[in-house]
Amino acid sequence: MVDSPNLLSMKGITKSFPGVIALEDVDFSLRKGEVHGLVGENGAGKSTLIKVLTGVEHPDAGSIELEGKLVQVRSPQHSQEIGISTVYQEVNLCTNISVAENIMLGHEPHRFGSIDWKKMNVLATQAMKRLDTDIDVARPLENYSLAIQQMVAIARSLEIASAKILILDEPTSSLDVNETNLLFDVVRKLKDQGHGIIFITHFLDQVYRIADRITVLRNGKLVGTYETASLPRIELIAKMLGRTITELDAVTKSKVEHEQKESGERVLEAKGLGLKGSLEPVDLELGVNEVLGLAGLLGSGRTEVANLLFGIDKPDSGSLTLKGKKIERFSPLESLKNGIALCPEDRKAEGIIGDLTIRENIILALQAHYGWFKFLSPEKQSEIAQKYIQLLGIVTPSPEQLASNLSGGNQQKLILARWLATNPQVLILDEPTRGIDVGAKAEIQKLVLDLADEGKSCVFISSELEEVLRISHRVVVMRDHKKAAEYSGNVDEQTIIQTMAGNL
Amino acid sequence: MAQRIKVFLLGYGPLLTTIVVFILAFLAGGWLYPAMKNPQVFFNLFINGGSLLLVSIGMTLVILTKGIDLSVGGVIAMTTAASAALLRAGVSPFVVMPLMVIMGVVFGFTLGCIIQFLKVQPFIATLMGLFFARGMAYIISLEAVTIRDSFYKSLALTPLHLPFVNAYVYIPTLVGPFMLLVAIYLTYFTRFGRTIYAIGNNEQSAMLMGLPVARTKIAVYSFSGLCSALAGIVFSISLLAGYGQFATGMELDAIASVVIGGTSLFGGIGSVIGTPFGVLINQTIVSILQFNGTLSSWWTRIGVGLLTLIFIGIQSVFYARRKYG
Amino acid sequence: MKKSSLFNRIRESRLFLPLGALVLILIFDALYSPGFFKLGILEDPVYGNHLYGNLVDVLNDGAPLMLVAIGMTLVIATGGIDLSVGAVIAISGAMGAVLINPSLGNQLVSNAITAKNATNTPLPIIVLAGLAAGTLCGLWNGFLVTRAKIQPIVATLVLMVAGRGIAQLITNGQIMTIYYTPYFWFGNGFILGLPVSIYIVLAVAILAWVLVRKTSIGLFLESVGINARSSYYSGINEQNVKLFAYTLCGLCGAIAGLILSSYIHSEDANNIGLNYELDAILAVVMGGTSLAGGRFSIFASIIGAIVIWTFTLTVYTLGVPANALLAAKAVLVMVVILLYSEYFRLFLNRLSERRAVRPEVQKGAESGTAN
To answer: Do A274-339+425-504 and A6-92+163-248 fall under one CATH topology?
Structure first.
C-alpha cells in the first residue's frame, strides 16, 4: 500500500467553553483520495472539531497542518480560501436564486461591467455535469430536491473554493435511498480525483459503505481511528457507547429490583402512528405503572415519537388513544389537558424561559392548564416551587433567581419540575438526564420509578443504555425512523446494541 | 406543455396579477368616467406619481433584503424644506440638488450602520429616522416655504411633448423611470443586486457563502436614502415649496406599491419591475376618486390599505406553493 | 443581612431611569421657568373649584398618552408593536363627534342647530360606541398578527394610514366641533379638585394591572415575549395572548380618543392624536420594557409618559413648537434603546478593548454550545 501523504493533520486539538470541555487532545488526519467517517454520539465533539477546522471556532491548543504546512484557520471565509469547504445538513444556500447563481455568486463572470449570465450558466452546467448531474441551472434552487441542492453546494465548493477538503455534515439525513446512492457515486468520483472527504453521519451502514477510515469521538476525547474494513459494526457501536466487547458480555444490569404492579390497564395506545418525512408508522403501548424505555442512536426517530405523542406534530397516519378515548386534536395545550407531559430534548429553545424566574418556570404549565383567570396566588406558587426545588434538588439561592442563571443540569430539573407540577398521567422524558451529575441522575431515575408505582406511566428516552435498562419495564428500540424491536425490561445490553446495529 | 405554463405562472404569477389589476383598474376608470380616456390622464399617473415611484424603488431593494425603511416620507419632507430654505438664501440650484442627494445618501448610510452594527431592528431604526427627518424639516421652517428659483420653476412648468401621443410630461417625471432602469440594472446585472436577493432569502447562508452582507445592507439603505432625496427634489419642484408636512403617510404608499408590485415582505422574492405597476395602481385609484369628485381622497388610504392586505394574501398563496417538499 | 442599601435598590429598580429623568426635567423647570410649579385653586363656575396650574395641565394633557402607553406596553411585551394608536384615537373621537351631531347626515342645517348644546344619541351610547370602535380596531390588528401571521409593523401600519381615512369617512371630512357640554366633562371636568382624566387613567391602569397581575395573563404575556416556542410547548395559547394585548391596546386608544376629543371640543380626523405612536413607544421604552418583548411594567410606562409630557410641556413654555420637537424625541428614543441594549454595551466594550490590548479574535461567549 502506497503511503499517501496526509492532506490534513490535526494534532492535540483542545477546545473548551465555559463549563464544558468540548475537545480534549484530539488527533485527526485525512489522506488524499480518502473518505474519512467521523462518528460519535451527542456531545462527542464532532461538530466542535469541524468548527475548529473551518475557522468558526479557534482551538485553545493543538495544531493544524494542511499538506504538511502549518495553518491558522481564521474564519469561515479563510477556510474556504485555503481549500476547506463544508456542505451542511441544511445546505445553507439561497433557494430563491438560480442554481447557477448559487454555484457562482461572489465570483460570477462579468462582461462590460455587468454579469454575464450566459457564461455563468455555461460554467454552472459544466460544474454540475462533473458531478454527473444534468439540470437546468437557470431555474431557482428551490425547484430542486434537497439531494440536488446538496450537489449544488458541493459544486460550489469545488468551483469557487477549489476545495481540496470537503466536509459533508450529515448529508443524507433527508435523502431517500436513490438520492443517497447518487450522492455516494459523486463522493467516490471525488475521492478518485484526489479530494479528501470528511463524512459525518449517524447512519452507521452508510459509514461502512463509503468510508475508508472511521474516527470515533466520545465525550470530547478521541477513542480511535480505524480502517473500516477491520472494524466490525458491533465493535464500532461499543466504542461509541464506551464499552469494550468483553465488558458488554460481562455486564450485568444493576437494575433496581422492583415489582411492576400488575394492572394491565392500557393508558396510551398508538396504532400505526406516523408522520411522513419524520416517522414511519409505529405501534406503541403504554400501561399504568409502567416505564417504557425508548432506545436508539441519535437520529433514529425517538424525538419524533415524543413529538407526535405530545401533539407538537400532527400525525398523518394512524391513531392515538388515551384511556380508550381517541385523541382528536394535537397540540401541547390539548396534551396538557389530557394529562400528557413532555420534557423536550432541547431545553434552551423549547424548555427554559430564561428571563422568567425559577418559580415562574415551574408553575408555567400548571398555570397554562388553569387558564387565564384561575390564577395561582404568589403563596401557592412559592409553595409549589419550593416543593419541587427540594424534590429535585435544584441548586439555587432562591426561587426568584432567573432561570437562565441555572446550570444546564439544574435547568433540566427545572423543566422536569414544571411538568411534574401538572400531575400528568403520562410523562414523556426526552433525554432528561443529559448533562446532570451522577447523584441527580439516580434521583431522577428513582423518581420515575416512584411515579410508575403511584399509577402513572412514563416514556423514557435516553442515549444511555444503562439507565434505560435500569428503569424500564419494557424497551422499544428505534432505528432509522422506525420501530426496530420491542423487548421486556430484562433484555441485556448486547441484544439492544445488536438491534441498533441492525444485526437482529 | 402544461407543466411549462404552470412553472411560468408560478414564477411570474404575482407580477402578472399586478399588471392585470392595473389594466382592469384603468379600464374601469375609463368606463366609469369617459374623461379618463384622454391619454394625458395616463401620463398624469407618471407625473403625479413621480416621487412615489422613486421612493418605492428604493423601498423595493430594502424590502428584498427583508428589511424595511419607514423614513422615506420624512426624508422627502426634510429634502423639500432644506431645498426651499437654501434656495431662499440664494444658493444655486445646481449646488442644492447634489447637496440634497448627498444628504439623502448620508442619512440612509447612517440608518444602515445603526441597523447593521448596533443591531437595532430596521423598523425601529427607520421609524426613528422618519420622526427625526420630519422634525428636522420643521426645525428648518415651521411654515411652508415657497420656492421662487427660476430654474426650479422652469423644470416645473416646461412640458415635454411626447411623440405619437397627444400628451406631455415634465422633466422631473423622467427621473423615476431613469432610476427604475438603474435599479433593474443593479438587481439583475450586478453582484450587488444578486447579493441582495441572497440576503433576503437567508442571511446566514449568504454569510457562509462568503458574500459581503454588511456592506450590501448598508449600501441598500444608502440607496433608499438616495431615492428618497431624489423624490424630495422632484416633490419640491412639483409643488415649488418646502414643508415639513409633505409626504405624510407616503411610507405606506411606498410599501403598498412594493407589495402590490409582487415583492414579498419576507425578503428575497419579487422584483423592482413590478413596483412601477404598484405605483400606477395607486395613482389610478387617486385619479378615479378625483374624477368621481364626490368621494373623498381618504378613500385612497383605505383602498390602498385594503389592497396591500389582499396582495399580501395573494403572495402567500403563490409563494407558499413554491417551497419544495 | 441588609446588604443592598436603599440607594442601590433604587438604582437597580426599573423605575430609576424614568423617575430620574422626571426629576431632572422638574429641576430644569424649577430653575428656568419659575411659574411652572405655581399651583392655585380656581373657582370655576362650570366645573367647581379645582386645582389650577402647570402641574395639573401635565396630568390632564398627558392622560391620553398615559392611556395609550398602557396599551402599547402590553403589545410590546409580546414582542410586537402597534403603530395605529393615533388612528384609533381619531376613529373613536370621530364616533363620538358624529353621534352627538344633532343634525345627522348631509342635510344642510343652520348653524343654530349644529351649535346646539344637545345630542342625537344618549351619552352612554356615545361612549360605548367609541370604545367599541377602538376595541374592534385592536381585534383587527390582533387578528392580522396572530391568524394572518403578518408582521406587527406592517399590520398596524396599514391601520395607521387607512384608519385616518376611516375616521375621515365617519366625520364626512369635516372637522367637527362639539357643543354638547356633558361630553366635555371627560376631558375638562374635575372631581375633588383633580382632573377627571386622571381618575380615568387611574381606573384603567388599575384595571389593567389587575387583569395582568391578578390573573395569569401578565405571566403569559411575558413568557410569550421572551420565548414564544417554549411557551407554546408549555401549553400556553400564545395566539390568544397576543390577541388580548392588541385588543386591549385598541381599547386604551379608544378611551384616549374620548378624552382628547372631549378636551379640545372637536374632532379633526387628520390631526388628532398625531404622532402619539412615537410618544407611546418612547414612554414604554423609557419605562424599561424592551422592544424585543418580555418583562414589562405598566406603572413604569405611565411614568415614562409623564416624563415625555413634562418634557414636551417644558419645551412649549420655552417657546419651541411641537413639530420641531419631533427630531429631538427621535434621538431620545434611539439613545434610550441603545442604553438598554446589550449589543450596544458589547459594542462599547469591544471599542474600549480594541484600544487597550489587541485580543485574540473572540468568537463570543454565545457559541458556548458543545456538541
So the answer is: yes
Number of domains in chain B: 1
Interface test with A, best of C213, C226, C230 (most A CBs within 10 A): C230
CATH number of A6-92+163-248: 3.40.50.300
Query: Is C326–B119 a contact, with Cβ atoms under 8 angstroms apart?
Result: no
Q: Which residues pair with A430 in a beta bridge?
A: A461
Position B9 in a domain: no
- Residue entry with cell 404492579: A261
Q: How far is C239 from chain A (nearest CA, A)?
A: 12
Q: Which CATH class is domain A274-339+425-504?
A: alpha beta
- In chain B, residues with a C-beta closer than 8 Å to the C-beta of C341 are 118-120
Which runs of E-coded beta strand occur in chain C?
A: 39-44, 48-53, 176-177, 190-191, 194-195, 266-267
Instruction: Give DSSP secondary structure letters for C179-221.
Output: --HHHHHHHH-EETTEEHHHHHHHHHHHHHHHHHHSSTHHHHH
CB contact under 8 A, A92 and B208: yes
Domain locations along chain C: 13-106+113-356
Contacts of C12 (CB under 8 A, 6+ apart): C4
Nearest-CA distance B214 → chain C (Å): 16
Which residue stretches of A242-355 are H helix?
245-250, 302-310, 332-338, 347-350
Residue of C nearest to B74 (CA): C327
Residue B242's domain comprises 51-277
Q: What is the pLDDT of residues A88-134, one digit of tens each?
A: 877 789 988 999 999 998 888 888 888 888 999 999 999 898 888 88
- Cα–Cα distance between A86 and A92 in angstroms, integer? 10
CA–chain centroid gap for B193, Å, is 17
B17 in a domain, yes or no? no
Whether residue A307 contacts residue A331, with contact meaning beta carbons closer than 8 Å, is answered with no
> Which residue type, as a one-letter code, is found at position C61?
D
Q: What is the CATH number of domain A341-423?
A: 3.40.50.300
In 10 A of CB A151, how many CB atoms?
A: 26
3-state helix, strand, coil in chain B (%, to 5): 75, 5, 20
Which contiguous run of DSSP H or E holds residue A452? helix A438-454
C-alpha cell of residue A221: 476525547
- Residue B16 counted as domain residue: no
The model carries a pTM of 0.81
ipTM computed for the complex: 0.82
Distance CA(C208)–CA(C73), nearest Å, equals 11
Q: What is the pLDDT of residue A264?
A: 64
CB contact under 8 A, C347 and B306: no
Chain C contact for B144 (CB, 8 A cutoff): no
Q: What is the full per-residue pLDDT of chain C (371 aa) written as tens digits?
A: 344 456 555 555 667 777 777 777 777 777 776 666 666 666 666 666 666 677 777 788 889 999 999 999 999 999 999 999 999 999 998 888 877 775 555 555 555 555 666 666 777 888 898 899 999 999 999 999 998 888 898 889 889 888 888 888 887 777 777 767 677 777 777 777 678 888 899 999 999 999 988 889 999 999 999 998 899 999 999 899 999 999 999 999 999 998 888 887 777 777 777 778 888 988 898 888 888 888 999 998 998 898 888 877 777 777 777 777 788 788 877 887 777 776 666 666 777 766 554 443 333 333 333 33
Are the CB atoms for A123 and A183 separated by under 8 Å? no
Contact B189 A114 (CB under 8 A): yes
Q: What's domain C13-106+113-356's architecture?
A: Orthogonal Bundle (1.10)
Contact, B216 vs B192, CB < 8 A?
yes
| First-last CA distance in chain C | 43
Helix or strand or coil: residue C40?
Answer: strand
- Residue B27 in domain: no
The Cα of A90 is separated from the nearest Cα of chain B by a number of Å equal to 10
